[in-house]
């Protein structure tokens, strides 16, 4: 039988502990490596999600910007259509061909008078004469004989445009605009449609009969 020295027992025990410590360290390193790999994978996934979200947001922003630009263009086009007012061409310098005294069905009188120095248009409401409501008076400043239109200036400085038409029933007029700022604005008013019951600003033209007969 061999006698085992106690010093050998101590050495062998210490050597066994060393191997165990190495195994623990290796396990820890392996676990940390796995955990690190998972952490890196999570970080990469988060970064990818952030990029996707950013790209989606940018795409939405681009789409919204495109829609806003389209709205601006549409608004600009709409404004251009509103501003594109056609001014009535005024040609023909012949004297006013419809001078005379006229009356409409409700008794309102229309006087178109020419003197050596001026041509005037007056309108007197029908019914009982009222001295507190004298006739309205305009000075005719422009006659467009080719278009059958005249522009008149009121005593307060505003402008009116009167369109007329003569047919088998006689003379009819339409006050296309009343109270315009100037003659150009009066000529820029919409052109009425003769013969229509709504052709004069949504109403019928005014039929006039000449008081002294004939035109």
- What letter string, H or E per element, gives the SSE order? HEEEEEEEHE
> What is the count of helical runs?
2
Q: Strand portion, in percent? A: 25-35%
Helical fraction equals: 25-40%
Total strands = 8
Radius of gyration: 49 Å
End-to-end Cα distance, whole Å, is 161 Å
- Main sheet, how many strands, which sense, barrel? 8 strands, antiparallel, barrel
Strand line-up of the largest beta sheet: 1-2-3-4-5-6-7-8
How many domains? The number is 2
* Average of per-residue pLDDT values: 73
Shape: globular
Which spans have pLDDT < 50 for at least 5 consecutive residues? Answer: 8-13, 15-45, 72-85
The class by helix and strand makeup works out as: alpha+beta
Describe this structure in words.
This protein is of the alpha+beta class and 215 residues long. It folds into two domains: 1-84; 100-210, no CATH class. It has two helices and eight strands, in the order H-E-E-E-E-E-E-E-H-E. The protein has helices at 6-83, 183-187, and strands at 100-103, 109-114, 119-124, 136-144, 149-154, 159-167, 170-180, 206-210. An eight-stranded antiparallel β-barrel has the order 1-2-3-4-5-6-7-8. A hairpin with a 4-residue loop joins strand 5 and strand 6. The chain is globular. The protein starts with 5 loop residues before the first helix and ends in a 5-residue tail after the last strand.
